[in-house]
Amino acid sequence: MMAKRKMTSNELAEKIGITPVNLSILKTGKAKAIKFTTLDAICEALECTPGDVLEYRRE
Known about the structure:
- The protein is an all-alpha fold.
- The chain is built from 4 helices and no strands.
- Helix 1 crosses helix 2 (20-27).
- The radius of gyration is 11 Å and the shape is globular.
């Protein structure tokens, strides 16, 4: 979604109010959880829905 919106990680992190390091953790799938407020901010910034940015992986 970031590529479709031509937005860098740093731009998105600044827009949603988290550090680029924390955004990287989310992007790489290393996060154990995400706050709904953060997910909402990401979706608002990228003009998308949660299904556009989340992927379910069985461990």
